[in-house]
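Hi R.,

Here's the chain you asked about this morning:
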Amino acid sequence: MLIHRIALGLALVVGWFALASHGTLRAGDDKADKKTDKSQVEQKDNAEKEAKDRYQLPEGGVKELLAFVNETMAFRPATRQELNEYRTKGVAAMKAAAEKILEIAKPEDKELNGFDDVEGLLLIFRSGDTRTISAENRQKLIADIKTYFANHDNPSKYAVSAAMQVASSLEYGGDPQVAVPVYRDLGAILARSKDPQIAKTGAKMEGAARRLDLVGNTMEIDGTEMDGAKFDWAKYRGKVVLVDFWATWCGPCRAELPNVKKNYELYHDKGFEIVGISLDNNRKDLEAFLEQEQNPWVTLHDGNDNSVANYYGVLGIPTVILVDKEGKVVDTNARGPKLGKLLEKMLGPAEPASAEKDKPGEASK
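And the predicted structure, written out as tokens:
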């Protein structure tokens, strides 16, 4: 989503450590792992001991526990072993520390730097289980997030991420319609924030609810074409249209492009059109890509102001929405073989390729 699929919620807190650490692994690590000489065994033992000590909760009170959480959050794993230990021992230790902080905190402790993030951190740890917990526990989590926002005028970034994580986990976990009221309710709360960034996140969550509710409803599109012309959505009425949110840097978008081109060639003469909406920030990259690919359909690009993408809460790309001749949305994930099947149903079978004529002098079989 985004952006391939946007890494939200818990990924914002711990997942990026994984990406950073993979980037720092040396090319020779795999070969080194195969060696079993005495020095490496000793190094492994020392690393295990260090990891055990690193994630051991400290003695002391709230101040010491807060320092422990901050140090653990700041740690950057340098090997796969450290990464795995961070994901298991590190996350578990931070969760235990946060729970203990809330349990023993006195009024004066709540004034300590970083205390406000503790509740949000626990919410984001809980939100990582959204797909697997029962419906009852999920509702309890959502209620707790709402209560947190009701009690905090300046919410933690972790709590904001937890709200997004709960909703996006439902959407991309196979329950998009269940995600609609979660996006809408939590988004409405965040959209009222005085913090511009939090309000923007809330508006995008409300947009995601709007997008997931598109099937059977009309979709509004505006924007600027690559030549500077204002896009006219009205002229596409009477056509079947694929609205494709994409970017040149998006691997899955590039992988899907041959399928999109194939279906355009098969069904364009039957009334199939495509409107590409690029989320690229670098216009030069976009221009070079379009020059190379020669896509025969219109591409919209408004720089960093992706108003349509924001309005429909596009959290990941490719996001491909199929609209019928009456302007109503048929499907919000028309990718792969599904696209061809939908087009055949809506426009009839594609014209078969003409048979090659017999070559002169050859008898027909």
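Confidence is low (pLDDT under 50) at residues 1-36, 353-365.

Let me know if you need anything else.
M.
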